[in-house]
Structures
1.
Amino acid sequence: MGRLGVADRHLDLALIIWSMSDETLNPGYGAGCAAALVERTPGAVDPGRLAFYRLLDGLLSTPTGPPTSGQPRRPTVEGDAGHTCGHAQTTLERPMTKINLTVDGAKVSDDVEPRMLLVQYLREKLGKTGTVIGCDTSNCGACTVHLNGTSVKSCNMLAVQAEGAEVTTIEGLAQNGTLHPVQEAFRECHGLQCGFCTPGMIMQSVDLLNENPNPSEEEIRLGLEGNLCRCTGYQNIVKSVQHAAAHGAGATTSGAQA
Amino acid sequence: MTATTERPADSTKEIGKDRRRKEDQRLITGRTRWTDNIVLPGMLHVAMVRSPFAHATITNIDKSVAEAATNVVTVITGADVAEEQGGLPNAWPITPDQIAPVHSPIAVDRVVFAGEIVAVIVARSAAEARDAAELVDVDYDVLPAALDLKEAAEDKVLAHPDLGTNKSAYWTFDSAQAGTGGNVEEAITKARTDGIVIEREYRQQRLIPAFMEPRSTVVDPTGEQITMWSATQIPHILKFLLAAVTGVSEAKIRVIAPDVGGGFGGKLQTTPEEFITFLLARRLGKPVKYTETRSESLMAAHHGRDQWQKLTLAADKDGKVTGLKVDLLADMGSHISLVGGGVPVLGAFMFNAIYKFPAYQFNCQTVLTNKTWTDAYRGAGRPEATFGIERLMDELAAELGVDPFVVREKNWITAEEFPFTTVAGLEYDSGNYEAATARAKELFGYDELRAEQMARRASGDPVQLGIGVSTFTEMCGLAPSRVLGSLDYGAGGWEHASVRMLPTGKVEVLTGVSGHGQGHETAFSQIAADRLGVAFEDVEILHGDTMVSHKGLDTYGSRSLVVGGEAIVKAADKVIEKAKPIAAHLLEASVDDIEFEAGRFSVRGTDQGLAIAEIALATFAAHNLPDGVEPSLDSDATFDPVNFNYPHGTHLCAMEVDTETGQVTMRKYAACDDIGNIINPLIVEGQLHGGLVQGIAQALWEEAVYDDAGTLVSGSFVDYLLPTAADTINFDLDHTTSPATTNTLGTKGVGEAGTIASTPAVVNAIVDAVRHLGINDIQMPCTPERVWNAIQGVHKGGATEAAAMPHFDPAEPGQDSTEGSAQ
């Protein structure tokens, strides 16, 4: 199934960057990546990825804060001699990066660590605890939000990648106290039990219906494949999406369209 | 007076309505309170350092680098807190001589499973705590690990060398000794000469509950009470055991289970993480939070199942069963957890299922290994037993060459025979297996699918069709306290409720059960609304906080409705009795003339009356009450059931098996369950759907797999295969109704039914599809590889095991997908 969200394509970028050596990761690295991306995918450049690469050079040239003067800016790998678990020993002094974005219609701005995930930013900095974390491998989809109108797993991209973006969470889906038709449908069709997967499931369902207002049962099942639920056995979730489709949910959108 | 919703005088009953859930508004809008959402002033964050080894001696821990890291508050090891950390409790020692290792929250000098906590970091942020966890340097001397259950049972390698054995407890039941039936050995001996003996060994693979909300704990030591929020199924039991283990007064501990994201038995536990955060908050005087990662959850939250079942079924030549003998090995993992040893024992009463077996013996050896500890997972003991017997009944039918229903009908308890005392000593109060079966066959299109199966056999279709039957029952609604006592369980099985009549006409119902997705707020509102004659909307269900709902035994074993719901009924009835003399006084009538119906107290034979809300307000004002009557309608009740209850049902599954590739596809699943009277059909349907998928997942996908070093290799959602929407189908469900006779609502539990019933239905269907190829078992999960190997093994004339050839080895025959199809 192709459409599991933009964020899947950014898989582990953060880890890749942290694992690179200082020599590789110099200002200009991002521009190089961006150029390579354009060359590799002419005419179909992923705008989120491109924006992230461009942002990267800004991060890399960010001066380090006072306590670390004379220290390398990035984590120093001191080798793992004596470590039985194989973890590199690191001392970390992380620069903060300022980001500006719109979340659930409100303009927000914060200094964040570049490694902070979008879901952590939403929960910890903004208190948007309606969006939850269910796994650490981007399998469960509980953290699904919309980024510029398209679903992404917010555990699978960095907060800094959302620079300039419009993010919609489950908390921003209802408008003026009126539930989104998909929210209504989940209640009507008993599409949730414990409710933990529900924010992600609803956000993915909204996205699915935006793309395909009249999906077949199979299209719904495939379209929700990236979101795990342990309670419902999915039958009533599928029914909820069908119900929402029948009640015009596909005509609605949330957040700004990319 | 604030508005209460007018309940129409001629209202239909709330019970039985498919009310939409009260819980949903907050859950669909993100206005939730999961434990991990809680943030408190000065709160510190905890990260764990966990052992990468299954069994090793800790020779040194250097925590100096971690301690020196910025924003790290403290780092503790097991040795640092050895005197004060206590041991995690086992509430169900199944035998007086059960062997159970000390279960320290933090390992002190030896680790006994990969994932055990060896050091704990406290830092100002969760990220800094995790960073510092990487800086702790632990030296281990690796020890041989006891990993294979059968080998562990032979004490080849000891999981705990100091104990001298891996054998924890041997629990046995024999119908001849108990006086509930005959001698099973005699039955088997006789069947060997002039009957049928079916001998099988089945594997119940290890599963992981995998609730969607990772476990999280916040402990706030500020203020007089120490408050713990925890993603738990059992706040009351946790409070009691925190007090019992730590010596802190029970009255100084408050446990809150806020919104809890699923449990399935996996949060029926008191965990190392809970005891560690409790200890740290007390030490530091600051709130602390720990939230596990999914990888930690899969590795270190308790697992379920994991048994070898050696089964011997004796029958006469006509298929009438004469005896059943069960020999179990049950893997407890590294420790005997809260009710770990009791899980297989719950199965002891269920192997005889819906049948009238004259002789029965159950023997269970619980075994310690160096794997994650096991405990309850949805069904807990009963799915394992149901799988064993329902597989055997299909094998017996195959041996006789008859339809699986023929042997079941020959052996099951008939509708006229209830109440029926089984060979395991339980009294089944009600049921009707004939009716449920007839309806299930109708829903399924049994005869048509059998005809299609025959046609595909005849034509040699490479995709064969199999039909699996599971006529299950279970014991649930845990449980009569006396019975639990007789089984050496450490607590009772009652449940508590309070009904508080507020002056505004609203009703607060406090329940001691603690929901985490079941819809208690909705179903219990329906019960209270009917009983008190108030509007559904005016009832508020309060639960999951030991300072609000002060007394209870929590949620597991399909007990919330049948035990907790009945307690609400009893408390509501007391409210009505307390209101009667006040109503009589206000209406200037004799108490004997007061009638209560549909929320109204009226004087018999007149049109005079008062609504219950009016009595509540008058009682609150207390200006005009009869002499000697206390100004309160509020009432408590504690209900202890006299029996378990026994849902049952007939489940039918059609599986298509591609004999060329081993691919299995579910074609149809239909079931008719008898769960007594239904409070809310919508919720019941949801419980069944979810339960079915968990049981089907055991048959087809899920398994906790360890490598030969004792590392969990299915330790993420990449590797542990939870089914997705794309893997599952819609089910066809219906109900027959035989009300339970041991609660006034006539209800039976439904939370575990689907899981218990579905696993054998699926495996029976797969085996049925390929039985003509000479196959009589495929080990779960029935992956395409296993199915394919089974088919290949038969074709080569060898044992199934011998067919485990390397993937896609061109030198091997049968690799071409066009080869090896059914002949």
2.
Amino acid sequence: MNHAVLFAPDFSLQALRRSEPALMGKPVVLARGEGRKARVTEVSAEAATVAPGLAVTLAIARCPGIIVRTRDLAAEADATRLLVAAALTLAPRVEDTAAGCCTVDLRGADAAQTESRMHACVVELAAFGLAVLIGAAGTPLLASYAARRARPVLIVGDARKFLEPLPVDVAEPTSNQAAILRGWGITTLGQLTALPKAEIGRRLGTDGVRLWERAAGETTRVLQLVEPARTFVAEWNYEVPVEAMEPLLFRLQRFAECVALELRGAGWVAEKLTLTLLLEDESDYRRDFRLPEPSADVGGWMRILHGHLETVRTLARVTGVRLIASPARPQEKQDGLFDIGLRDAAAFWENLARLGALVGDGRVGTPVIADTWRPDVVALEKPAETVPAPAAEPIHPPRGLTLRRFRSPWPARVRLGERQPEEIESAELHGIVRAARGPFRLSGAWWTPDRWAVETWHVELSTNAVYQIARTTEGWSVEGVFD
Amino acid sequence: MGYVELHARSAFSFLRGGSDPEALAAAAGHWQLPALALCDRDGFYGSVRLYMAAKEAGVRALVGCEITMDDESVVPVLVASQAGYRRMCDLLTTSHLRAPKGKGRVLWSELATDSAGLIALTGDEEGPMRRVWRERGTDAAAEAGERLIEIFGPDRLYVELQRHLLPDEDEENDFLIDWARARRLPVVATNGVTHALKSARHVVDVFTCLREHVTLDQAGRRLTRNRERHIKGEAAMTALFADLPEAVANTGHLAARLDFTLDDLGYRFPDYAVPAGESQDSFLRKVTYFGAQQRYGSIVGDVRRQLERELALIEKLGFPGYFLIVWDLCAFAREKGILVQGRGSAANSCVCYSLGITAVDPVGSKLLFERFLSEGRTDWPDIDLDLPSGDRREEVIQEVYRRYGRTGAAMTANVITFKGRSTMREVGKVFGLPDDVLDRFSSLFHGGDYPQTLKLKEQLNVAGLTAEHPRLEALIDTCGQVYSLPRHLGQHSGGMVVSAGNLSQFVPLENAAMPGRSVLQWDKSDCEDMRMVKIDLLGLGMMAALQDSLEICAQRGQPVDLARIPKDDPAVFKMLQAADTVGLFQVESRAQMATLPRMKPENFYDLAIEVAIIRPGPIQGGAVNPYLARRAGKEPVTYPDERARPILERTLGVVLFQEQILRLAMELGGFSAAEADELRRAIGFTRSQERLNRMTGKLGAALKKNSVTDSAAEYILTSLASFALYGFPESHAISFALIVYASAWLKVHRSAVFYATLINNQPMGFYSVASLVQDGRRHGIKFLPPCVQRSDAQVGVDADDTVRLGLATVQSVRTKAVKSMLATRASRPFASLTDFLRRTEFNPKERRALAAAGALNILGDHRRAALWRVEETDVTDELFRHVATGDERPLSPLETMTPLERVQTDFETLGFTTGPHPMHLLRAQLPDVWPAAELVHTKPNERVKVAGAVTCRQRPGTAKGVCFITLEDETGTANTIVWPAVFERYRMLINLEPTLIITGRVQKEDGVLHVIAEEISAMMLLALPEQASRNYH
């Protein structure tokens, strides 16, 4: 028993359900591919009439109410960390072999203790929402085969006897090899290894020989051990839910110190912090903070977190807190020749975060003219870190008078003549129209409930002032004056 | 002349216009515009439709187009004269033929060469001036304008002004007005119309998104700014240009200069090159009489009278050249050994029969010549030729090109329109609907545009779009508007137009998708409207199968002459009466099979009726059941009017054929030949319900005037309305019946040949190869797997009851490699598998497929042994390539395949099996399921369970939402009927599952058995291979 493999069947589906508990107990399948080519890849036990490989459309037909989802890579990454962490409890030499599969080098470990630890590990992971099977054998490959047959732990003694009935797919033939073997009627490892190895070599080449050796459990290899922690997560669950900010800040300060230290030790900095507050009502409050410049500066992190938490009001008490630092290499960049960089980028972003906390994230940014024909509509974009070079002169510079918009526009009553407005009256303005130009009609977003239409006029009043008035479904308004 | 809209685009600008030409014409008529110029992008695609619709609306249709230049600017050009039209056609043809589809650009240098007869506008925002003004300023725009003056001169260039109530358009217009004044050019107002009515602005936006591959949410400023680019009346345009009244007035002046309309196309059908001393008339007479001599032996009595009558009319109408050209084309086909047979109304002509164009004797069959040609006819008669599909038909098509040149002949276009699922898929994507909703919609509302029992809103709801979805209403409205608008231009399956001189002078030509073919910009109705002569060279799979059958029979020393096979063979009619018609031409459909046992055809004419009766026309007209009941003696034969007796006698008082409608109109309504011809065109012209209504009214009045009772008149008018939904002419039905009979005769007397040639000519008909093979097996035919020592590329016949599959039936095997192998084998048979592997060029995948299909069994013991051997890497050593070798290899260690494995492998490699039906192998797992053949032993209303591969799903428009599903098992087929409510419950399963279990009650009527479905489930047996089916055709 030199190696053990922790194997999480239907790993992607399990990871998804761990991250979305609402999916528990419901028929869920994972699908891959687009449109009519989409196929089911993993199936929950509740969707008994569906099998992997089935077209998604057929799955929907066969299992009404089925939930079809695609892989959630973030959830898988999270589950993988958990799996690796669990593997590290068995022995320090761990390989993250594949999605949902970790191989542990057990050499030197006490066999009896290890076996009981394996069972504990299965229980522990199940409590965290991840069902795993563990196999142990002389080689990583055999251990891997064993894990796939374990209920939930299997330690292989007689390798040959164990291998014979296993389906040939466990030896992971390529699709071409699988097609050939299917044609030959080879369905088990025993059948494959019954064929002379040399004859397999003549037909399937060296890859075929390797497949045969895998089928015979003869292959061994050196593990690609996981590097020291590359993800930096800290989490705490409160025994008694908290309402005040201090305990949170205290815990976060400790997290930040610890995680920042780990990051620096590994030669990383954080590019993003994710703060999650787990709430008593089983919901959570989650906020991402993209750092202005990737850093491992505890003071800077805390200023952002503190500034934000000052404004947070949750509907339920906090039962847990999680901080994830997303690592990145320290940034290296070169400004453009005509770009002007911010003098203190960190301070700028801190202020921006504070503003966001005060007025809402959706109301902070650089206004840019929105890509729509609707007049006077701007969108807020994330501010650029550099000021771009000035734009070229327009081909047709604006001519005539400049419109100075009233914010907000003045509601008005307009008396219409046969062809044009004749009199305008509002709280701020009253006048007889001496001349008018228009109407100008714009409309858009007709496919949404936010469809809009506006008719505008340029009117000259007897005072010689020229105004822009507009009519929408809400009535007339004076939009501005031409200077 | 008042305001004329001179710059309008229709949906025939393909994703650049939101209304069809008919809608534009109607809007122009509504606003009482005297004329309307259609300027579609890079062609005259919609011109004919505008021309026809504008006539109805009392609007003069002017001809123009927007041409995309080599700098991507777009110049609107109006056609002033026939010379200008021809020049424009020529320019467009040149640009299209030298570029991939949709990429044709006219060179400025080409336009400069000759622009006589053309008048240009400076264009809209895509025009050369405004485009440059925006990008590079006034000087560059003026420079672009100078180039237009150079090309068109100041007298044929108008500065185009558009006002769409936009705040920033004045600046651009001010520049254009100043420039026009400086250059002393006239200004002209247009509205740059892109849609007929305001509401169609949505369509324009959706099309913009489709063109730019973005959603509406992403499109931003690519969308329209308002809905002002619709057809406007003079008052609106005068108000818009109140400060420039000359811009509006000039539209009338300019329109007055446009002399050219499509009245004046100048098209002429080519003359036939007659021998010296002969005229077209005399030569036609000569060859007709010669042919008649061959057909009839002696030309006397009715035959002579009919020939004289026809020839006189053909000469009078000036059509002899047309008949001679078609005759010559048929002669070419026969010389090349290609089967050819005229279909349609041409079979009503004794001249056509004598010329060998058709195969039906119209005198003997008492067919109505006026259905084909009449005194009052102004358009060309229609002669459609059926040819074997595939290479043989292509040979005839290429002969037409050879004779008339690439610019002298072209295929007619086929306008691909937005339909059902494709409309929802495309519009839904633009609306940003999730893919899963669209996928689900496509799956639920499976292929084709069969009538739905659910409204679109409900369909979307079932597909996962809630009724409260904020975009639902807009989506449904837009789909409704987009539906049936043109999407792109395809190629008609067989319609060819030829002309005297270059066809490209009359209509622009483009490259077709198939190399060596050109396609013109109008569809067949447009060509008919323009009185262009169309010859339909249609490919029929069954003709190809018949031709192949004749060749195989001759090779096997059992020659067959289709013209001489007895037409009263009892075995043939016995088979037809038993509805044993899988594989037969026309009568193999589910509906035909359900009718045959009731119809019990006894002679050839019954077959013509059988062909004609299962059509939407007779079905909608309620003719089917009365005819069958009368035939069975269950109800008396009556006539709507005693005067109708001679017309309807043969069809027991029921209207089944188009000719009968025309005869009734002539005999009871007193219609002249010209009026009858007008009626014929109204029936055939599906685009205009108004036209049909007009003729219905006219006929109704005529019947009343002639004292036809109300009930008789109503019956005749109902029949008329039904025939607009598609009914056959009698002559056409008889022509088709000939092919039906020939195919039936072959199935009875040359069964192996019949099945072999059907398989070789797939895809065709209603059934997959898998079903054909099972049908053959039930008829005692043995199907042998492909064999590298014995098979040819194609399926062949080893014995009277044995079919040998060809090597080309093995999927994924290249034809080239098979041909090479056959050549190698011809020089010396393969001595062993090693020898085979060394001397052939199959790649590993092909070798594997051949072995799996059993094609190497003769050399390798069994399939697995061959599969073991073909993977050896050292047998193809080049050194031993030409050395015959015996096999000294050890035997394969692999087990032979089980029967189920063989069936599965057959389906994987061939798509069907020559062995037992898969259901046979799974029967033990389905103890409570009735085999299809045993259903005859059930009692009416008994509850049964049937199961099998779905070979056919049908939901015809005439069935009011009922779905017909055919399940095939090892004993035959079980026909099931699914009522709408049950269909809706199991819609997804029905549409998607390849194999089904259906529980329901037995219905038996007149020897026809159905299972009325109550419960439906999927047959989830993993071992069952998936079989091809034919759905919702």
